[in-house]
Request: fold
Amino acid sequence: MGKPSRDKGKRGERQAAKAIGEHWGHEVRRTRQSDGAYDPDLAGITGVWIEVKSLKRIALHRHYEQAKGDAGGGDIPIVVHKEDRGPWLVTCSVEDLKELAETLWGQHERPVVNSVIVRAEFDDDGTDSNVPYVKFNGIEIPYVEKLG
Reply:
């Protein structure tokens, strides 16, 4: 592989790492790259093997099979890819999607509910009822579980 191709690959990996950080809230980093190394292109999400492809045209199934083989059955293989001037996309198998979502959610800091308010509302018969609401980032959401 020539230097321009390697440089394009490195740029793509840095861009994909930035996109994952911005959109998933996970800090990932490029790993060491050497011929024959069995390391994902990006690391930082335990249990997920991230293969990055930034190409003019994507041979997606071939790249997914590469990630799946390299992951060795222990990690969830995904391919982060984009075509020239296109958006970053993530591909994984349907079978792995639920586990990927659970893995990402389990490793991400959960939002903190910053206040609970009770607002008086009136039923159709004119009697008032207290309805608990959760206020999160300024948005009031009816609280569906019992409080206290």
The two ends are 62 Å apart (CA to CA). The chain has a mean pLDDT of 76. Strands lie at 29-30, 42-43, 48-55, 76-83, 89-91, 115-122, 128-136, 139-142.
